[in-house]
Amino acid sequence: MISRKSLHPHPGLLSFARPVLLPARRRSGPEFPLRIQPFKMERWQSLHDHQVEVNLSESGVAPLCVEELVGDPEQVKRLMTLDLGYGHTGGSPGLREQIASFYPGANRDNVLVTCGGAEANYLAFWTLLEKGDRVAVEIPNYMQTVGLGRAYATGTDFFRLRRQREGAITRWGLDLDTLDRGVTRKTRIILITNPHNPTGAILTEDEMQAVVASARRTGSWIVADEVYRGAELSGRLTPSFWGRHSKAVITAGLSKAFGLPGLRIGWVVAPPRLISALWSHKDYTSIAPSLLSDRLATLAMEPKRREAILERTRSILRTNLPMLERWIATHDDRLEYTPPQAGAIAFLGYHLPVGSIPLAEKLRVAQSVLVVAGDQCGLPRHLRIGYGYSVENLRSGLARIDRALAELGSPEIARPGRKRISSLGRHSAPCA
In angstroms, rounded to a whole number, what is the distance separating the alpha carbons of residues 338 and 76? Predict the structure, then answer.
């Protein structure tokens, strides 16, 4: 009989063995330290967007369902027989070709498919940056890239969009003086969002050329987040930064203009050598897109179907924006409004004696309506309101904001020299 004792390599020591208890290492900081600055807007939405009765924090349009996207019942049946294995880790060749067709001069070797536009931005910053570099970021903005710049580079600098009056029109325009100061020889990446989040602005041709000139002057990469491209109220597709600079990187996806956020499909369009490096980094993140999402995204990006989807988006925006503008007109003593040119978002300044984060919190707690605070986009005393879902959702949310504004009382007196702008633009309609 073989005893347990005879299996021990040193039987004579067996009876003397005792577990050794090492003292726990004491942390001087938090138990689970976040090694990147908190992404405050995304935390806000993640915690609360499914907890409120009315969500006006979304920047896309009401999503399509699978049946609407696919259309053909036979094709829906074929999808039901799809084996759910691993697909192409960089995106299927067919999907990459369809995405490339959205960018004149691109081919599938210029495309890497990612898990949403957020992963596209993450991979671009992670791959391109190292300590000693600096990033120039347009402000206000979707602040993911500010956090990424501070994590992977030495510092982040800013240039601004400002309200500018051009004749009878007011628009958010690029402040060229801040662009010149914000982009230096140490700048590795210039981050542009076009069409812009949170303002809905679209850069003019001269403004785009100014960004390209800054990049060429300093040898910087342009990372252009173009996820709202295709959601223009005018119907004219926003020109891309692709092809304007040898160091241009485009990030985008199906979440916003296409109304397909649940597919979690994004992409990077870049020179092939950079695509190869990004793909290698992607081995550490999502590895591969969902096979089902890849197949549905390939359908969505077929040119004819793509145009139909984008026209649906524009129709929703043209239907809903006049209602929002009529509501804004009833508060023109306290709201500052510059009409968006694209995207399902309006960025409203306000004259009230409360900061944007406490105001957004008041709306959430007291009225169960969620909006985005301007401070979460880098510009205080503003709120971002999404208007791309149903008319009923928008009407209910605005009524709740009305009740909160009534409780806050009279508008704050504007400071001397501060001019309030409440131009409603060409999409406005008479107050009903």
Answer: 43
SS3 assignment, position 23? coil
Q: Is residue 258 domain-shared with residue 183, that is, in the same domain?
A: yes
d(CA 50, CA 58): 11
331, 310, 313: which is closest to 321 by C-alpha? 313
- What is the extent of the structural domain holding 349? 40-63+307-407
* Strand pairing category for 369-370 and 372-373: unpaired
- How do residues 335-376 score in pLDDT, each as one tens digit? 999 999 999 999 999 999 999 999 999 999 999 999 999 999
What is the distance in angstroms between the CA of the first residue and the CA of the last residue of the chain?
Answer: 95
Dist. CA 202–CA 377, nearest whole Å? 17
- Rounded to whole angstroms, the Cα distance separating 303 from 421 reads 40
Q: What is the pLDDT of residues 17-54, one digit of tens each?
A: 566 666 666 667 777 777 788 888 888 888 888 999 99
- What total of structural domains would you count in the chain? 2
Nearest partner of 364 among 141, 47, 62, judged by Cα: 47
How confident is the model over 204-218, as pLDDT tens digits?
Answer: 999 999 999 999 999
According to DSSP H, which parts of 101-233 are helical? 116-128, 144-152, 176-182, 205-218
Residue 101: give its domain's CATH number.
3.40.640.10
- Edge to edge, what strands does the sheet with 169-174 contain? 111-114, 266-269, 248-253, 221-225, 187-193, 134-139, 155-166, 169-174
- Helix 356-367 and helix 391-408, axial crossing angle in degrees, nearest 10: 110
| Domain of residue 329, CATH code | 3.90.1150.10
> Within a 10 A sphere around the Cβ of 416, how many other Cβ atoms?
5
DSSP output for 189-202: EEEEESS-TTT---
